[in-house]
Design goal:
globular, FAD/NAD(P)-binding domain, 2 domains, seven-stranded mixed beta sheet
């Protein structure tokens, strides 16, 4: 009879579950300050399509503070200095980043796998940083009510990773928060989003927010040779859209974004259309002894504004700023972990409330099937002096930008 042996790795001061933006950034910052850290990423590489590609000015400023901005921007990317929408055929300027107090006054559009490869490569220069690709966390090690590490499946079998602190950065379906039974508050969301790709041609217009008409909202993200397309739909209506057939789906895209005419035929299978079920929720308790959740593991954000990645990165910076000294001196307590939530949750909750408000507007838009005109309140709002700069600050910086602390 085969017997599966669970191996045990040498202890890490910090074990991070999830090699997304928050996990890699936190690992980078802790290792940079001398904290031994191990990051577990269940996939063997970072290449997964239909992920957020927006690196906002607040994140670019963090890279500047780390001395890495110029090196990052040497990678292929495009730059957006403001966001606009085509509403019923009328262009509405929604935000402007030109007045932000940052060195990079734009959103960089870069595939997230390139950003993660870049950041993990830079982190690997620190001897205290270890990343384990293809290691999937399956549970937590716990003793007397304290999380003492992680159980993971690896290519070589199950492994236990003992750690003083375990940080869940494993997204909205986090094994960390499930295993710890942390309580979750869900706002409920009336929309979902379909992700697909369509070829891009020279001369195509740049538009980083979207096209709104006929009860649909379509987002185009420029990936140089193709568009990553986000197609917003009323929640739970994807089966009806599939039942109507691919030709109707293709025609609907072309009607809303006319310059894509004669290109949608490449969407020749529903396998090329990926459904993302949108969630907006947050843990009412981010931590327990030995465990802390941040990023989407602590608070799933909507794609509205493309700000979820940047909120997660701000969580990571705040966590490093607040916990590094305690980790270095082996003095970490539950009080330190609660400080992270106390410091970050107001900005997170207020951002989520703004997203929920935007969802109400989108639900109204998606309830109509006739051609629309830009609503009068929106036209008035976008012409108020300073509106686009305030919107640019909210989207580009967030409510609580963080800065790198040196130890």
């Amino acid at each position: 009879m085969d017997v599966t042996t669970t191996h045990r790795t040498p202890p890490a001061t910090c074990c991070i579950i999830g090699g997304g933006p928050a996990g890699i950034m936190l690992g980078f910052l802790l290792a940079r300050s001398g904290v031994p850290v191990t990051v577990l990423e269940k996939h063997k590489d970072f290449f997964r399509d239909f992920r957020g590609d927006t690196i906002h000015p607040s994140t670019l400023e963090l890279l500047y503070e780390l001395g890495l901005l110029e090196k990052l921007l040497a990678l292929p990317h495009s730059q957006v200095t403001g966001l606009s929408a085509i509403v019923g055929g009328q262009r509405m300027v929604m935000s402007d980043f030109s007045h932000l107090p940052t060195h990079a006054k734009f959103v960089a559009l870069m595939p997230q796998w390139d950003f993660l490869n870049f950041l993990s490569t830079e982190a690997s220069r620190f001897p205290n940083f270890t990343i384990r690709m293809g290691w999937e966390a399956t549970g937590l090690l716990q003793q007397n009510g304290v999380t003492t590490g992680v159980v993971a499946n690896t290519p070589d079998g199950p492994v236990e990773i003992p750690a003083t602190l375990t940080v869940g950065c494993d997204g909205r379906h986090a094994i960390s928060r499930q295993a710890a039974h942390l309580p979750l508050f869900d706002f409920g969301v009336p929309i979902d989003i379909l992700w697909l790709r369509i070829a891009r041609q020279p001369g195509d217009p740049e538009n980083a927010l979207g096209y709104v008409n006929y009860g649909r909202f379509i987002i185009l993200i420029n990936r140089n040779d193709y568009f990553q397309v986000g197609y917003l739909i009323p929640k739970d209506t994807f089966p009806q859209i599939q039942q109507a057939g691919l030709p109707a789906f293709q025609q609907g895209i072309e009607r809303i974004v006319p310059f894509l005419a004669n290109r949608t035929a490449e969407i020749d299978s529903w396998d090329k259309v990926k459904l993302l079920t949108i969630q907006v929720n947050h843990l009412t308790q981010w931590s327990e002894p030995g465990l802390l959740c941040i990023g989407d593991a602590a608070h799933a954000m909507s794609p509205v504004g493309g700000i979820g990645i940047n909120i997660a990165l701000q969580d990571a910076v705040a966590t490093a700023n607040l916990l590094t000294e305690a980790l270095l001196s082996n003095a970490l307590t539950e009080h330190h972990l609660r400080q992270v939530q106390q410091y970050r949750e107001s900005a997170v909750h207020n951002t989520q409330r703004a997203q929920v408000f935007a969802h109400r507007i989108l639900r109204h838009v998606l309830s109509r099937t006739d051609p629309i005109q830009a609503p009068l309140p929106l036209r008035i709002l976008t012409h108020i002096p300073g509106f686009k700069y305030l919107a640019g600050r909210f989207i580009g910086m967030g409510l609580q930008p963080e800065h790198i602390k040196n130890f």
